[in-house]
Every structure is written in C-alpha cells, then in structure tokens.
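TA notes, week 10

Several of you asked for a full example with nothing omitted. So below is the full record: structure tokens for the whole chain, then the designed sequence directly under it. When grading your own attempts, check the secondary structure regions first.
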C-alpha cells in the first residue's frame, strides 16, 4: 500500500514506524526540523523491545507524493484546517483517510441519524472547509489508546498502550475497515473494529475532556488533579453533563465518574497532552475537547453549567498566553 502520514508527531510516528517496518511504502508530510530529521534518519521509534528505525519518504507538500491508498491524519485539532488545505493531491477515488486524533472530530455526527447527521459542528469546522476538503466517503474514524511522546523531531518514545479502534462513521463493519485492521495488526498495532466508532470516541473523550484543560490551567499532573476532593468533584460534575449528552445522542456510558477516576489514577502521575502543549507554547486543542461538548449540549438541550465554566476559564487562560 501507499500510505502517507499527515502529522509526524508522536502518534503519527508510532503508526508510521510500525507500518514501514512491515514493508509498506510509507511517506510523511513534514516541514522544518522534522523534515530534515526524517530525510536524514527515517522514522525512529523507541520501544521497550528496543529501537525501531525505518526509512520513509519525507516531503513538505502533498503534491510531491501523489495519490495514496491510505492517509493517516494524526495532528492536533487546531491544525486540521491547514491539513484540509493541503491534503487534496493525496486523495484518489478510493483513498481511505484514517483520523487518529483527540476529541470530537468534524465527522462525529455522521451516522447518528435524525436530526443530528445533517448538523455541522461549528466548534471543530466553523467554515465547513474540512468536510469539503475530505469528503465523507473517505473517512475512517480512529480512537487511539496509546501513550507516546517525541524525544526529538522524528524520534518517538512509546510509553504504554497499543490499541487503535477503527470504524466507519456511518456505522457497521465494512470490508475496507476489516482489511485495514488486519494490516495494522500484522504491523504490530493492536487494531480492532467498532461497529459504532462514535461511542468509542465519546467514551475516550469522557475521560480526557476534564483533566486535560484542568492540567493546562493548573500545571498539575493527573494524580494531583484527582487527589484534590474539590477538583475531583468538579471533574465529576462535568462528566455527568457529558454523560447525559451522550445518552441523548445514542452514545450511552455505563460507568460513573468514579469508575473512570479509578482507571486514570492507575496510570500514575503524568502530564496530559494539553499541559505538554502549554509548556511548549503550542496551541491547545480546546475546541475538540470542550467547546464541541458545549455545542452538543445545546444541540441535545442538556444544560452544561460546569462544562461552560471549564471552557471559559481554560479559554481565557490560553488566550492570555497566545495559545488559543
């Protein structure tokens, strides 16, 4: 297969290295130091089992690569409009576009039926440019359950987790998704197919839509956030609002906030991705994680006072630092 990674960060590098190691033709869209590093060293992935280093074709523009069989979009949500502007030359009639991103994606309401499917989420695709650039027929949703970070440009450290859930936004289990899952599995990625990928997306969001922005506000690791009883109660109240929104969208969650807190605490003290972005001076993906939830609350007629407070405070904090 001809596979292009659009977003050579931690998750894109993790997936790309695995695929290239199995002989797939992997290319990467990159620029600056990342482009230089990929051209000099290829993709490097440090795992518990050792260092995996694989050659890839690195390019700054999609026009240099041409039509692909699979494009893996693994960027932070604020970068999606730029991706949409540049992705066109990679897309042929049958190209699959796998989104391996955090939060609520622009395609989230597809397949959820009346009245939701015809609605555009302004919080994640205000102008509709992303949906226009990447037609719905190309999209395969992805939910990543793996922790990776960048040691340096093009050099990924895998920490824990090896799970990638795939699914058609329209629901069901298509042949192309089954074949893609098999390809990823053969490359060492724990891929599985979901008949309702929005449910898996919502369940992951339910856990990180709170600790991410709170960590960005406070600089605290997750153990400290959940170790403060007042903050923990606030987190639970936001989660209960999101749980009700999910139920009205047909995406029920059969856990209580305390169940998820227990799961999060088992991971120990770690910095969320949003806190890492704040410390690095990078834009935060607040809209995909929180603004979209507020918008879905309006859509489903669920009051969201605690979500509103979390969004307002984090947004102001980020604006004062030029990160939103």
């Amino acid at each position: 297969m001809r596979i292009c990674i659009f977003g050579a960060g931690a998750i894109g590098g993790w997936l790309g290295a695995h695929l290239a190691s199995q002989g797939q033709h992997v290319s990467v869209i990159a620029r600056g130091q990342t482009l230089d590093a990929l051209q000099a060293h290829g993709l490097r992935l440090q795992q518990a089992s050792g260092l995996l280093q694989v050659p890839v074709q690195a390019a700054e523009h999609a026009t240099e690569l041409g039509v692909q069989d699979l494009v893996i979009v693994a960027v932070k949500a604020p970068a999606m409009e730029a991706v949409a502007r540049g992705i066109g030359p990679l897309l042929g009639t049958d190209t699959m576009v796998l989104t391996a991103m955090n939060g609520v994606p622009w395609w989230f309401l597809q397949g959820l039926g009346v009245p939701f499917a015809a609605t555009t989420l302004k919080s994640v695709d205000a102008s509709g440019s992303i949906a226009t650039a990447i037609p719905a027929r190309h999209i395969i949703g992805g939910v990543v359950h793996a922790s990776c970070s960048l040691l340096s440009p093009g050099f990924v450290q895998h920490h824990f987790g090896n799970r990638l859930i795939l699914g058609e936004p329209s629901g069901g289990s298509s042949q192309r998704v089954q074949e893609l899952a098999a390809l990823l599995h053969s490359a060492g990625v724990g891929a599985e197919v979901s008949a309702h990928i929005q449910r898996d997306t919502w369940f992951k969001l339910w856990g990180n839509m709170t600790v991410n922005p709170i960590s960005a506000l406070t600089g605290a690791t997750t153990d400290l956030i959940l170790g403060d009883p007042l903050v923990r109660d606030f987190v639970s109240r936001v989660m209960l609002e999101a749980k009700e929104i999910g139920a009205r969208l047909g995406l029920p969650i059969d856990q209580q906030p305390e169940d998820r807190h227990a799961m999060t605490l088992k991971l120990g003290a770690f910095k969320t991705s949003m806190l890492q972005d704040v410390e690095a001076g990078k834009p935060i993906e607040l809209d995909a994680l929180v603004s979209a939830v507020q918008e879905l609350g309006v859509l489903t007629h669920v009051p969201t006072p605690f979500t509103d407070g979390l969004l307002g405070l984090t947004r102001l904090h980020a604006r004062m630092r030029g990160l939103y």
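The longest strand covers residues 139-152. Use that as a sanity check on your answer.
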